[in-house]
Records
---
Amino acid sequence: MLFFSYFKELVGKEVTVELKNDIAIKGILHSVDQYLNIKLENSRVVDQDKYPHMLSVRNCFIRGSVVRYVLLPPDGVDTELLHDATRREARAG
Amino acid sequence: MSWAGPEDIFLSTSLASYLDKKLLVLLRDGRKLLGILRSFDQFANAVLEGACERVIVGDLYCDLPLGLYVIRGENVVLIGELDPEREELPAHMTRVSAVEIKRAQKAERDAKDLKGSMRKRMEFLDLD
């Protein structure tokens, strides 16, 4: 639940999602769900030449199970808030 | 994908907005399927109508027709909405027939195998 809530806070920010098949997609986080599936708007692939089939894809749905990393803007992370939330979750669970 | 509750009304990662649209589906085995989304569920299982597989080898591509497909969600990597105002592929790519693309695929496979076997033969040199 913690990361679901955390990603909900990041909706509207630009993120880069790196997938397990090595594709990296940059876009605005539109929505996220309990499985950490991600929907990106205004998306573009980082290495466009390597993935020509993705040229006209602007909005995409990414299955949570295939995500390796979600790269965040450094100023988009409130580490104190995250620390507190993590401690609370650890205490509760 | 959960059904949106009242508080999630603006935050749905549902595929509902993609229904009846022509989409690109990337699968875990590297295949690229195109088709119109007719149905989906919480596991990202999907039904694609008029599906075709876009095979790309270098600058050549071919769309192989498949018909009505049910895709098991665990194989889905990404579902992308194709912007109708943009070209689906770069201009330098050429469309070829199914026979030609299969030939190109075989050539690519053979080149990869050759590279692999040559590397194996060089292993004894222990260069690194």
Note: Chain B is about 20% helix and 40% strand.
---
Amino acid sequence: MPQPIRLKDHEKDARLVRNRVIVGAVAVLLLTAVLVARLYYLQVIQYEYHSTLSENNRVHVQPVPPTRGLIFDRNGVVIADNRPSFSLTVTRERTGDWEQVLDVIVEVLGLSADDRELFEKRMKQGRRPFEPVPILFELSEEQIARIAVNQFRLPGVEVVAQLVRHYPQGAHFAHSVGYVGRINEKELKELDPINYSGTHHIGKTGIERFYEPELHGQVGYEEVETNARGRVLRVLKRTDPKPGKDIVLTLDIRLQEAAEAALGGRRGAVVAIDPRTGEVLAMVSQPSFDPNLFVTGISFKDYAELRDSLDRPLYNRVLRGLYPPGSTIKPVVAVAGLDAGVITPATRVFDPGFYQLPNYDHKYRNWNRSGDGWVNLETALMRSNDTYFYDLAHKMGIDRLHQYLSRFGIGQRVSLDMFEEATGLMPSREWKRITRRQVWYPGETLILGIGQGYMQTTPLQMAQATALVASRGKWIRPHLARTIEGQPPVDPNPMPDIVVRDPSYWDQARNGMEQVMHGARGTARKVGETAAYRIAGKSGTAQVVAIRQGERYDRSKLQERHRDHALFVGFAPAENPRIAVAVMVENGESGSGVAAPVVKQVMDAWLLGEDGQLKPEYRSPPTSPEPSR
Amino acid sequence: MNGNFDRTLSSEDVMRRRATLLQRLHVDGILLLLLLVLAAGSLFVLYSASGKSWDLLAKQASSFGIGLVAMVVIAQFEPRFLARWVPAGYVIGVLLLIVVDVMGHNAMGATRWINIPGVIRFQPAEFMKILMPATIAWYLAKRSLPPRLKHVIVSLAMIAVPFILVVRQPDLGTSLLILASGTFVLFMAGLQWRWIAGAVAAVVPVAVGMWMFVMHDYQKQRILTFLDPESDPLGTGWNIIQSKAAIGSGGVFGKGWLLGTQSHLDFLPESHTDFIIAVLGEEFGLVGICLLLLVYLLLIARGLVITAQAQTLFGKLMAGSLTMTFFVYVLVNIGMVSGLLPVVGVPLPFISYGGTSLVTLLSGFGVLMAVHTHRKWIAQV
């Protein structure tokens, strides 16, 4: 059947479009009526409401910043709280000429040109129109009075009470808890502009930085009515902010103070870990500084003083300080050697005072030049015999050594929640090929066996490696937060436990360390003699300047700051470890002479009751499957 | 009388002589009058909204002058002549949009402009506002009405390409206007009601399904704030709260010219562009806004009359779509400022400050005039 030919029917088309024009016209009228109805609602029905707001007054939405979460030590002592403090704010839009107003402020308060410059910088950090920008904090009573008297010359300037972070414990926790500071321009770009719209401070380091999202909370806001001068007359609507979460730390303020006292004004680091839980009980980096200085903006002078001090108080020695672990690594190397099967507890090595690789002339010295004669593992640890460990490292080879020591956390970040922890370095063939474009030499393996050479560790890593020996390989990342709003922190990336072929290897290492303290020829026997309980410990020395072949370490020739760093690690009670401690004393020279007493003092503070005896809860050794000695 | 009648019909010369200057210029007097009223009103409101900036007024006035010239020039062309160039224009327009898209992704930012320094600087998306309805009108005018499914699908595809490119810029307001101008042609061409109903019915379950199964929480949150800006009073909601207070405090008669308080003092960040109706509402009240709406309605009415009287199908579709799109400008702008609709960047036609949109709008009215004044004499009797 042929299709009917379609003809274009112009009349029909025109009719169709005309109909649509009518539909369109009706739609236009209806929707316009909706608009008019809306305007009628706003301008007639709600007129009273809007006009009251507008008659000399302004509606204003202002963010209500959340209260920052508090930080407590493990006993509930406040470490960081929020203190009301009076600040001077300037609302640029209400000042008329804000530069002139700044001049008046400087004049009225008798401030300097430097302060004026700082104010100008802070004014530029305003983010929204009509935002009162705080330019001066912690006003004194006199300053408030001066502002009040001159209020008529200062349009748009207000004294407001704000909660400002305060650290009542001062310098004690500056390197662990850190501090908050004013949000800078770079941070501003990365922040959620809404949630931080009322916030002027942000965590800069430490716990304050690491747990910033938890501590900050969620912003609220209120719609307020202000008069023409910007004063809030009443709040129309309010959504409360959600305060930040409180954090309870694992740190113990008494132990922290005891550790600082034990260091006694020397530069250095102390870390104490509960090996059963990974809780960091004390974390000292000395000298320290007052974190309160940073909260409201540190003055140029104060900052220059801290920054340029030779003692480097801003330097976090626990997390950022890198030192060769020296002999403190020997217990770990011993466990590795036993598990790899290159030694047994009975293996003996003859020490003439040095070690030589076959076919090489170079003599690798024992610290005791006269030699210790025949040594087995126990003696090697007790005497810190280098020759034994040169031999052990040589038998292991770099690859296995790298593999084992990495499992103990050397060369990687070990903590769960510490900001800017250094990774340290555990060298390998691969590493040397890439960074130095050189092959690995056998001699470099030898010195790794005594913790020297390329290896670099932080005091925290030394403490964790020691805690692992104490806990027999159970890996829990050391952490500072015990609970966050009642919840323990979760490790998103746990380390695998270290499992050895025979658990008694742990006892071999521990036994050697006990001999260091309590053995007749132990290197730290003088400290061990005074202990009310058994300690397992190991001394070490970190070289600051290299000693050439054939030269002797001569302290009289070295400046104080070029002397070796003294190291000591240990845990106690040896049979039931409750605390593992690592101490580094800068330029302290003698691990067992200078660092070991610090370790013992820290242990005493934690383990001893008021009667000078081991606290009852630490006394009885747990029923463990380990073979009795 | 009878003699005269004879001569009048037979001689075009007489008609020519009688034609006024406006007719010879192909300008529609009614539209011109209404546009001039709007322009004058715009300058008044802008003077207040800009904080008495003569500089701004001079710029706006000169943009208006340029727009008028463009309008008159376009009015000289026969719609049939215009239609011939439409497909090429569409292709070039889309290519320019693609160029902008690629450049924008390389240069990070400045994604709307084509800029040849010292030569020319323009937004291709603006041209699309006129090219889009012209293209669909050109395509459908050659076919029988109402359009068949195949033609509807082709039309929608032609709308979708520039729409998506402009959304990616991202310029939600302009893309919406492009979408509206294209679909209004379909509507004017008599798109069947059951298809319209079917499309609406299909959108609902798809949207619900996307919401429930596809979208992430943060995307949902973004859409919720978009639909209800007042739930985010520290972000976009801030503008709305302020503009509502400004309009509402104007009352019936307003506070008087230059006497608005809410809209000055920088409470409204965009008081002289997209949010200018708030200034008008505060200073001239409900009466002022209604007068403005009246002028708009008269413009739209004239546009619809032109649509109905147009002789060619292309002219009808084009005129109808341009008129209805003009209404969308008004509806969306006033709707968003008064808190009825989500905030998309659509200016208030002829009142908001901005040269580009003025020139585009006046060009559109130039097309309307071309459609109206190039009819054959016989039909005008």
Note: The CA atoms of residues 5 and 195 of chain B lie 50 Å apart.
